[in-house]
């Protein structure tokens, strides 16, 4: 099927990409989502595993939670622990993450040659 490239279609495409980047763009969000794909993590575990400072991690997690991609669960323990997990909605990014991972592997191979 041929795609018709009109100015209007291009503007809609750009808007959609901007919306996507507003939600998952930046250095950390996709990394955090990928880590959480293997299961829930506590705050410090995420910080350590991602290699991200607690201040930046807190900001990124708040934004992911606001966009309904991450759940934040406060556990009734002493001291209180907070656990983060993916929401069912986050599964809508699986194809994006898979494609990016595949492209990254191929790009690395090409650059190493």
TrEMBL record:
Superkingdom per UniProt: Bacteria
HTH hxlR-type domain boundaries: 10-112
SUPFAM superfamilies: Winged helix' DNA-binding domain
A Gene Ontology BP annotation from the UniProt entry: regulation of DNA-templated transcription
Keywords on record: DNA-binding, Transcription, Transcription regulation
Molecular function, one GO term: DNA binding
Protein known as: DNA-binding HxlR family transcriptional regulator
Species of provenance: Runella defluvii
């Amino acid at each position: 099927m041929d795609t018709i490239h009109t100015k209007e279609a291009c503007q809609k495409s750009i808007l959609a990409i901007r919306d996507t980047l507003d939600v998952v763009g930046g250095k950390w969000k996709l990394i955090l989502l990928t880590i959480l794909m293997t299961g829930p993590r506590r705050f410090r575990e995420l910080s350590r595993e991602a290699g991200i400072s607690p201040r930046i991690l807190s900001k990124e997690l708040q934004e992911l939670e606001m966009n309904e991609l991450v759940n934040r669960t406060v556990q009734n323990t002493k001291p209180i622990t907070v656990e983060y997990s993916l929401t069912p909605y986050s599964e809508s990014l699986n194809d994006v993450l898979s494609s990016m991972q595949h492209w990254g592997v191929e790009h690395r191979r090409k650059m190493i040659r």
